[in-house]
Amino acid sequence: MSSSSASDDVLPGNHDPCARALVVGDGAFAMAMATALARRGTDVRVLAHTAAVRDEINAGENVTYLPGYALDKEHIRAHTSIEEACSPDVALVLLIIPTQFLRTFLVNNISSLPIGCPIVACAKGIEVRTGETPFEMMIGELPGKYHPHFAVLAGPSFAKEIMDGQPTNVVVASVAGDVAARVQRYISDGASLRAYVSDDVHGIEIAGAVKNVLAIASGALAGLGYGNNARAALVCRGLAELTRLAVRCGSNGRSMAGLAGVGDLMLTCSSELSRNFTVGKKLAESGRSVEEITGGTVAVAEGVATAKSVRKLAAKLGVEMPICDAVYQALYEGLPIKDALLSLQARPLGSESGLVAE
Length: 358
Hints:
Elements: E1 20-24, H1 28-38, E2 43-47, H2 51-59, E3 76-79, H3 82-85, E4 92-95, H4 99-108, E5 119-121, H5 134-141, E6 150-154, H6 159-163, E7 168-173, H7 177-187, E8 193-198, H8 201-223, H9 228-248, H10 259-268, H11 275-286, H12 290-295, H13 302-317, H14 322-332, H15 337-342
Parallel strand pairs: 1-2, 1-4, 2-3, 4-5, 5-6, 7-8
Antiparallel strand pairs: 6-7
Helix pairs in contact: 4-5, 8-9, 8-10, 8-11, 8-13, 8-14, 9-10, 13-14
């Protein structure tokens, strides 16, 4: 398994675990990454959002967000205070917080994180209010002493499959190659979880955000009873949309053919393990509003909010994104999802002249 957007320079024997890591977040993916690190012998401190979930984790099962999966109580310990969870010997910080809540955490903990270790944003979204990605929020809110150590993580990585120890490949991007390489070594285990490195922070983040919006559309296709032809067309044309936006945001475009682009797009557009796919499917099947569908769930479908921010960012940059626009209209303007998606077939005819062509 490989990624065409990242270097393949990991050699056998250099998968070096870190002694201690801090995972900020208590959802399913936070538990999966904590477990992946714990399997390597890393002492993992989890910063939980509530005392109830903290106690569940420390009892050996996160019943709220990941029921049915045992946690390593020897290596994973949860806290609700960052002072308790964080210590000077923390060698890796994973920020696994939904995008729309990340800034609040950063502001409230502006000087609480350890200095000198990689700080990795794992959220896949764009903030609605500002149009900023997680990396941009970290740059804007945290002091300069932290900036050389920032990275982002993306790629096709369902939490339950990581928990099951199934082969999973991700990509770590940073403007500092040594930082990405450190994270790569810390999380790659030589067996089930493998990380590649990249310097295309912009591309990795835009791909991770936009694919969630496209997954809603793909789920809606499934809910409407459409088949593989429709899904294949959506994935291909969706890839063209996210590539156009990523390039306008500073990406080299090559990452779109890698794990964060094609890889994660294929994953989230084809499985009900994807929260965003499930939202779209329920939207099409039930006719209920998105508020009714998401109101009874504890997990966050990032694509719902990101549909707003992608629309704003695309309009600002003059990027044509008809599929994402159709999802926005269905979520926020009351257009039936079937009508929104079928309207794509009625658009003016054009030429397929390349992924970045308008």
